[in-house]
Amino acid sequence: MAALSAGHLFTDVSQGAVAALVPFLVAERGLSLAAAGSLVLAVTVSSSIVQPLFGYFSDRKPLPALMPLGVMFGGLGISLVGVAPNYPLILLCTVLSGLGVAAFHPESARFANYVSGSRRARGMSFFSVGGNAGFALGPMISTPLVLYFGLSGTLFLALPALLMGLVLFYELPRLVSFRPEAAATDEKGAKAEEDWWPFTRMVMVVGIRSFVYFGLVTFVAEYYIRELETSPALANTALSVMLFAGAVGTLVMGPLADRTGRRAVLAGAMFLLSPLIYSFTLSGPLPGMVFLAFVGAATIGTFGVTVVMGQEYLPGRIGVAAGVTLGLSIGLGGVGAPVFGAIADNYGLPTMMLTLAALPLVGLALTLSLPRRATETPGP
User: Fold this and answer.
1) Which of 281, 299, 270 is nearest to 220 (CA)?
2) Which CB contacts under 8 angstroms, 24+ apart, belong to 82-89?
3) Domain 196-368, what fold?
4) In the predicted structure, residue 334 carries a pLDDT above the cut 70
5) Which residues contact 25 (CB under 8 A, 6 or more apart)?
6) 107 in Cβ contact with 63 (< 8 Å)
7) C-alpha 260: how far from its chain's center?
8) Is 2-187's fold the same as 196-368's?
9) Is the pLDDT of residue 190 over 50?
10) Greatest mean pLDDT among 173-187, 189-203, 233-247
11) CA–CA separation, 351 vs 195, rounded Å?
12) Are the C-beta atoms of 106 and 118 separated by less than 8 Å?
């Protein structure tokens, strides 16, 4: 599990670095803002929207090599962005990195399921926190490299990805040994019972959570600067507090879900989010950070739980389930950011925050409609 989580970390470093490179590409390559925005869209589509396709093919024929290859191609693609001489090649390298990220997630989530045994939510949370950390580390690693070496400094991003890929290649035989015989039988064609309608409703909950997550990640710092009149440094600190608390929440909610049930934990998170976000809008800078910490824990903390729920609803298609819950639904959440930006432009940031606060109530109603059978199976 440590190898899988570390692979998740180094894969998502590549994804998290894209947005941090945009200002440097605009300044040094003369990209327009529209072209720069297209890079973010390209990595979102290639890394998130296509994940279910990789999951579909891995369900039909398991491809464990996608894990090390995904890490490597993710790092290789982003490392070449800084030295690509023109925009088409920059875009191509971005898409290559995104496809590496997309290839890694469904197959690695499948093996995280196998390695976790009966404590699936706990194991998947440990796997997910690697991704959370990697996404946050992406800008922290890439920015100093570019500041010191120029855009060619992105080449250094290939090194940790290649090394991690080699580690995963070394670990493949041991990882494959965790695959249960029942799973191997299902992958050869036996049909397991699948609950598509509950799975669809659960994916809608994940989509709502993603809208809230991307809305907060995009506009929390701006809210601090404009509405609370703080410095950009304090604003970014508030965002970091939220993301760090989300990583802590991920580690807490996984074991809790194994003991009390997946649906109960997801419903509790949805129930708490609305009053927490509303309380944040009534608070000053420092109390607001406290509420943001709880918001981050409730929002990000259920990432691993919902992956397990999806795999339990579709036990014969756990690659597809992971691709949808980790990729498609989360990627669609990023599409909502411009919508919330338009609300903020026209009605103000406080109104936009209140809109975000209302969404978890819809998520709560959908969560309570989910059956207990597949989600409330506590482990030992």
Assistant:
1) 281
2) 82/21, 82/24, 82/146, 82/150, 82/151, 82/152, 82/153, 82/154, 82/155, 83/151, 83/152, 83/154, 83/155, 87/29, 87/31, 87/35
3) Growth Hormone; Chain: A; (1.20.1250)
4) no
5) 31, 36, 39, 81, 90, 151
6) yes
7) 24
8) yes
9) no
10) 233-247
11) 38
12) no
Cα 212 to chain centroid distance, Å, stands at 13
Are 368 and 265 in contact, with CB atoms under 8 Å apart? no
Phi and psi at 352, nearest 5°, equal: -60, -40
pLDDT in tens, 357-366: 999 999 999 9
Q: What is the rounded CA–CA span in Å between residue 303 and residue 329?
A: 11
Distance of CA 164 to the CA centre of its chain: 19
CA-to-CA distance for 128 and 164, rounded, in angstroms? 17
**Which has the closest alpha carbon to 291: 254, 333, 241?**
241
Q: What average pLDDT does this structure show over 318-326? A: 82
More confident residue, 319 or 33: 319
Q: Who contacts 306 (Cβ-Cβ below 8 Å, separation ≥6)?
A: 202, 205, 206, 209, 262, 266, 325
Q: Where are the domains of the chain?
A: 2-187, 196-368
Cα 257-261-263 angle, rounded to 5 deg: 100
The answer, as to whether pTM is greater than 0.85, is no
Measuring CA to CA, how many Å separate 254 from each of 229, 272, 310? 37, 17, 14
Find the mean pLDDT for residues 277-303: 94
Asked if residue 152 has pLDDT above 50, the reply is yes
Average pLDDT over all residues of the chain: 86
Would you place residue 244 in the very low, low, confident or very high pLDDT band (cuts 50, 70, 90)? confident
Provide the 8-state DSSP code for 371.
-
| Topology classification of domain 2-187 | Growth Hormone; Chain: A; (1.20.1250)
Structure confidence at residue 35 (pLDDT): 79
Kindly state the percentage of the chain with pLDDT values over 70: 93
